[in-house]
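User: Can you fold this complex?
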Amino acid sequence: KAGVTQTPRYLIKTRGQQVTLSCSPISGHRSVSWYQQTPGQGLQFLFEYFSETQRNKGNFPGRFSGRQFSNSRSEMNVSTLELGDSALYLCASSPAPIADTQYFGPGTRLTVL
Amino acid sequence: DQQVKQNSPSLSVQEGRISILNCDYTNSMFDYFLWYKKYPAEGPTFLISISSIKDKNEDGRFTVFLNKSAKHLSLHIVPSQPGDSAVYFCAASESNDYKLSFGAGTTVTVRA
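Assistant: Here's the predicted assembly.
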């Protein structure tokens, strides 16, 4: 069974630009969550989608948004990038929104210059 | 405000000895706790979990202890092996909900 895939793996952008990251969940998984990992902060919850609906959102500004498609693939978008947005962005998929069934992808490393 | 804290950023242990990783939380609503292991260039993988109705859960070489009154949990790895060298994250949620709060991680290095 293929794991969670995230594209691209690495990305370099400049301040003010926008970026779109993609996550393909494990086949059959309908829940996709996104996390931001920065040094010293651990992983911080961004948002979760289940059956194309955003069910919860973490404490991030409106510049961070996402969506989920009917095939459960998800994208997250960050507009007007800031230096502090440099981080590893991880997505996790699960059959249902239950914590210990989540499988994480390898992440997208975003660097904002 | 960080609700889950791992105060030791790193831990070095000799192969065959015990590794003890600590985690503290502040939110009394948390009732489900998990440990994840992360290798470089890979996503975190689920290791072991514990519900607040228990104070200990064991899975092979890994044991998690929960002290609810102190809002503290720990992960014991016995015996430690070189393949255990990784970053370990503690996480907590309400009722095994998907919205996890993570600690900053502890980097474990197992020396031969």
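Chain A has no helices and eleven strands. The interface with chain B takes residues 4, 31, 33, 35, 40-45, 48, 56, 58, 90, 92, 94, 97-100, 102-107 of chain A (CB under 8 Å).
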